[in-house]
Structures are given as structure tokens and as C-alpha cells.
Amino acid sequence: MSANGVILIGGFCETIELCQRCGLRLVGIVDASSQVADDYAVPYLGTDEAFLARREAYRGIPLVVVPDSPNVRRRIVERYRAEGFTFASVVAPDADVSPSCRLGEGVVVHSHVVITAQARIGAFVRVNLGARIMHESVVEDFVTVAPNATILGRVRVGALTYVGASSTTLPGRSLGARTVVGAGAVVTRDVPDGWVVVGVPAKRMESV
Q1: Within a domain: residue 208?
Q2: What pLDDT digit, counting tens, does each position of 128-146 carry?
Q3: Burial of 208 by CB count in 10 Å (0-12 exposed, 13-18 middle, 19+ buried)?
């Protein structure tokens, strides 16, 4: 086993190509289907159940947790951590990540992302293509920041939140845990835990 080998939990083309650009050796993919693994000529290691039945053969190889859903990522991490696995972070070579920011365990940072001074990114956060997280913001565990979303300075994003594509959260605002910010929304006020907000300015969506 080479030191830079990883196993992907979830088959997704963008994450496969990200790992390849980072020079990581893809030991295999665990997923419900072999389709993406076949498309990229990466070994298919079966479903979660099939993989875990042979887990001793892969002990010591870190995992990259791929799914976009914060709740799904959390469940996967809890399951595989209980089985003794460790986790790798993947940061695109062209991401602009300040040396003063802190990245947690198992983060995935895609191409053209900008993370500026003294930002704090929690464990298993996924920052998608072109997203921007500005100075002194705190993004808690298992958050997903969708493509081209902008989180301006000194924002706090609670755990398990989904920040939608091309949305903007204004400076100093707070997004509670398990919130959802709709695509293109502009958050001008603090958002309580569990709310779904949409629009410009962002307002609570009463039914989902």
C-alpha cells in the first residue's frame, strides 16, 4: 500500500477527479452501484455491507467521505469510525486557502475555492467548486457549502447546515445548526436552528 492511497465512500465523478489531481491513489470506491467506478477504471469494492465484510483487508487505508448531504456524511462517518477506520482530507491544488485558516478532519475542498484569513472549517465539511469563505468565519462540522456560495466575514455556520449554490451570507450573520439556505438566497439576518430560508432577502420557507 502506498502512503497516498485512499478509498472513496460514495462514487462521484468530481471527487474522483479531485483526488486524481491531488495525486492520490484510488484504492477503490464503495457505493451502491459500480457505474462510476467502471467509468473511471477504479476498483469497485462493493456496497457498504460487502466492503465491511472484508474490512480487515483495507485496514489502515484512510477514507474520503463523498456524499453531498450533511446528514448522510455524518451517518457514514459514525458507522466507519465505529469500525476503526480513519479519514483523509482532500484540498484542490488550485484552492486559495489562507495559511492562517484551520481545516478539520476529513474536509473536501474543490477547485477555485477561496478560504481567507483565520477562517475555521470544521470536520467533514464539503466546500464545493468556486465557493468563498471569508475572514474569521466559523463553519462547524458536516456543513456543505454548494458551488459559488459566498460566506462573508465573521459568519458562523452551525453544524449539518447546507448553504445553497450562489447564495450570499452577509458579514457577521449566524446560520443555525441544520439550516438550509436556498440557492441564490441573500442572508441578511441571523437564521435559527432548523430553518429553511430562501429569496432576496432570505426569509423562512414555511413548508418544505
Answers
A1: no
A2: 999 999 999 999 999 999 9
A3: exposed
